[in-house]
Amino acid sequence: MDSYQKGDLSIKYHIIHKKMKNTYFRIKDDYVQITTNMYTSKKQILLYLDEKFEKFYLALKKHSQKESDSHITLWGTTYHFIVHEGRFSYEIHDDTLIVYTNKKEIIHIKKSIYQHEMLKKIKEIHPQIVQVIRSRGLYQLPIKLKYLKSKFGSYHRKHHEITLNTFLATLPDIYLTYVIYHEYAHAIVFNHSKDFYNLLGEWMPNHRKYQKDLKKIAII
User: Fold this and answer.
1) According to the 3-state scheme, what is the secondary structure of 56-97?
2) Contact by Cβ (8 Å): 162, 155
3) Segments making up each domain of the chain, as ranges
């Protein structure tokens, strides 16, 4: 097993040579397995690892963070997860969340809970955010919820609406607050320019901490 370092980060990899034409990169438990032909040099492989380093690093992190089916995390707290058949509803007792549902796949059940939790939390925190953004002449925008694989939120310029990733329901709610402010800021400054971050800092002075944290979190 070898390791490739880039900056302060590293990924483990293992090269297997076979009689084959192509080269394949696969994510294993905690390393990248590279299966290639007898003529591909290590230098070529490392050049590709360097080029796609962030992609492989995030994929490995995502794989290692995958939550078990017997647990669910909501707003930064992890609960034992028990599923019963029945009409959809759920309740939390101490460290256990019990859900009633007719869905069979655990990931779909969790996504339904994320959706409901997001609706409740947005209803709770959104009015206060709207009060803050009014200082810049903005008013409440429609918010859509989706389970996204690659981003925590987006602002749609054409439809003048915000989309939030329901995966945010797994994190402490301050990250949801940050993402909502972030997307509202795009309604005024569409790109990530100095003006954008100045505006975000006006609304949420400590935003850089949460922005930095989210870059390290893999959506699973």
Assistant:
1) HHHHHHHHHCCCCCCEEEECCEEEEEEEEECCCEEEEECCEE
2) yes
3) 2-64, 71-215
CATH architecture of 71-215: 2-Layer Sandwich (3.30)
Q: Going from the first residue of the chain to its last (220 residues), give the mean pLDDT of each consecutive group of 10, the final group possibly shorter.
A: 89 90 84 90 91 86 78 96 97 97 96 98 97 95 93 95 97 97 96 95 95 80
pLDDT of residue 65: 65
Residue 109, exposed/middle/buried by CB under 10 A (0-12, 13-18, 19+)? buried
- Reading the block at residue 179, the tokens are 């993402």
Contact between residue 34 and residue 52 where contact means Cβ atoms under 8 Å apart = no
